[in-house]
Write a structure and sequence with these properties.
This is Transcriptional regulator. The chain is of the alpha/beta class. It has two domains: 157 residues, Rossmann fold, CATH 3.40.50; 41 residues. β2, α2 and β3 form a beta-alpha-beta unit.
């Protein structure tokens, strides 16, 4: 069985529930993530900023109490403005390209609940681009507006659309309809023609801009040899 590795940023608000014992009665996403009995976490890579070191250590200690098998590794990052897309994306990308992923022996979850909305968007983009070979992990209170259940609940989101049969079937159906439209409903086994249609499809059906067509148009008559008519350049 593969080891499960979680990656996330420290929640400076949601993970900050004070120092007293009553913090255990509140939902804290990073701690709650490690309290799911059916989702054991072997290691948590927790990203934090320098000013939040004390909070990061407290969260690490609390996780050790509720999930002693989870190894928490603190990763310090530098972000001046957590709402600056370029800065946040660069910081998270730097972490991703340096991390020694081992997909043969480990599986990865990216926790997207904590951090600013910008950080959440960056996690999504990096995962979609496969800089992070991971699934997304969303945590939330057990009942909306009720944070008394400290562990909360979770949802795993897989961005590999090939796993979703309904979506895959829809994409294939739409692609077939688009090709049929370009062929004017005429089926053909001509390899060169089909290759041309595939190339045109990538551009024509995703843009409203005019397309300049150059070359010769071949009309095929089933009762006589093909006739080549040179139309020159034209805009379609």
């Amino acid at each position: 069985m593969k080891r499960r590795i979680a990656i996330g940023v420290l929640g400076t608000k949601l993970d900050r529930r004070g120092k007293k014992a009553n913090r255990w009665t509140k939902w804290r996403p990073t701690v709650g993530m490690c309290q799911q009995p059916e989702l054991p976490i072997d290691k948590l890579e927790l990203l934090y900023q320098t000013n939040d070191y004390v909070l990061a250590e407290r969260v690490k200690e609390d996780i050790a109490q509720v999930s002693p098998q989870t190894k928490v590794v603190l990763n310090e990052i530098q972000i001046e403005d957590p709402w600056d897309f370029e800065e946040v994306y660069t910081a998270l990308l730097d972490f991703a390209v340096r991390y020694p992923f081992d997909t043969e022996n480990e599986e990865y979850l990216v926790h997207i609940t904590t951090g600013t909305h910008v950080a959440q968007i960056c996690w999504f983009l990096l995962t979609e681009a496969r800089y992070l070979p991971a699934q997304l992990l969303q945590t939330s209170p057990k009942n909306e507006g009720d944070e008394s259940h400290s562990a909360g609940v979770y949802t795993i989101i897989d961005l590999d659309l090939s796993r979703y049969t309904t979506l895959t079937s829809r994409f294939q159906r739409e692609q077939q309809e688009q090709v049929a439209f370009l062929k004017s409903g005429i089926a053909t086994r001509n390899t060169n023609f089909n290759r041309l249609i595939d190339q045109v499809e990538r551009v024509a059906l995703r843009s409203t801009a005019p397309i300049l067509q150059r070359g010769r148009l071949v009309q095929v008559n089933p009762f006589s040899p093909a006739e080549s008519i040179n139309y020159g350049n034209r805009v379609i």
